[in-house]
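Recap slide: Phosphoribosylamine--glycine ligase, sequence and predicted structure.
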Amino acid sequence: MKVLIVGSGGREHAIAWSVSQSKKVDKIYCAPGNGGISQIAECVDIAAMEFDNLADFAEKNEIDLTIIGMDDPLVGGIVDVFEERGLRVFGPRKNAAIIEGSKSFSKDLMKKYNIPTCHYETFNSPEEALLYLENASFPIVLKADGLALGKGVLICQTLEEAEAGVTTLMLDKQFGEAGDTIVIEDFMTGREASVLCFCDGTHIKPMTSAQDHKRAKDGDKGLNTGGMGTFSPSPFYTDDVKEFCEKHIYQPTMDAMKAEGRDFTGILFVGLMLTEDGPKVLEYNARFGDPEAQVVLPRMENDIIDVIDACINGRLNEIELSFEDNAAVCVVLASDGYPEHYEKGKLIKGLENFEGKDKEGYYAFHAGTKKTDEGIVTNGGRVIGITAKGANLKEARANAYRATEWVDFENKYMRHDIGKAIDEA
C-alpha cells in the first residue's frame, strides 16, 4: 500500500511511525510533514488546507489510503473532497467533524441525547454574555465556539477575569471567527482523562486512556497550550469508569450523530472529567489528540491499517483492540516563550541518540521541526515530544525525563511535572 498522511505535528509523526510498523505498507507520504517525519516518509510540499492539490497528488501517485491528522482540514471538509473523487480516506466528513468544529453544536447534542456534561449557555452577543456573568458562580469556563489550536478555553476565577475573557474572545478576536460565538459553562472538578476511539459510523472502540497537561508551566500554571505532555494509561480511569463511559457516553454519541444524519467515521477524542457525580464530557475532538497519540499508539498492538480499514468498511465490530500491559509518558520539549513569542531556526543536537531506540521503548516524535542543509532545526512552539515506555507509569516517567537529556537546542523548555499526579495516585 501507499499511504498519505496529512499534517505536520507530533501527532502525525506518531501516526506515520505506527503506519510504518504495518507489513501492508510499502510507501508513506506526508503533507507537509516535518524534519522527523522526513526520516520515515517522503514529505510533500502541500499545505493541509489545499484540498484539491492534495487530492490531485493522491490520484497521480495512486495513493491507497489518506489519513487526515489535523482538525482544520477535517472541519473544512477535506474528507468530502476526497470521497467525491473516489479516493479512500480516513476521517469524519464535514457534517460530522462539526462535533469538534462547534462547541455549541456538541453541547446541544449532549443535551438533546442526555449524554453527561455540565450546565452551559451559548452566546452570540458580548453584551448578553456579560449580563449572564453578573449572576454566575465562579470559577467559570469560557470557550470559543470554533477551532482555536487547543487554546480557546479560559478558566476564570472571578467576574473581572470572565469579563476580560469575553473581551478577549468576542471583541478583541484573539482567535478570530472562532470567538464570534462562545459557550459559558460551569466549572467541573475532578480528574481529567482523554480517551481516543476508533469509529465506523455505527460501532465505536475506545483505546487505552491518557491524560494531557495543557498549561505551559509547572503546577498547571501559565497559559493554555496545545499540550505540554501526557501519560497513558490514567490510573483514575478504572474498569467501572470505562464501563460507564461505554454505556452512557461513547455509544450514545455514535448513536446521536447517526440520528442527526451525521454518521461519524474516524477518530473520536472524548475529553472526560471524572467528577464526584460520575464521568462527564468536557469536549469532543474529531481526530487523534496531540500529544495523546504519542503515548497511545506506541502501546497499541494492532496493525493500525487493519483497524482503519475496518472503520472505513463499517466492520469495526470485528476488531478487538489490544494494548501492551505497560505505560508511556510523553514530555514535550518546547521553544521558550511558547505559546506566545518564541524563536525558530535553532539547531537540534543529539537526535541520533534515538536511532533504533523505538525497539527499546524510546521515541522522539517531531512537532515543530524542519530539515535544512545544516541539520534539523526548530520550527515551532512545540518542538519534539519525548516518549518513553516503562513497566508502570512511574518507570515510564523516569525513562521519559532521562531521555529528554539526550537532545538539546537553544531555548529548550519543558515542564518537569508531567505525570506527577501518578506518583501520588
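The chain has four domains: 2-93, 119-186, 191-318, 327-424.
The radius of gyration is 20 Å.
(End of recap.)
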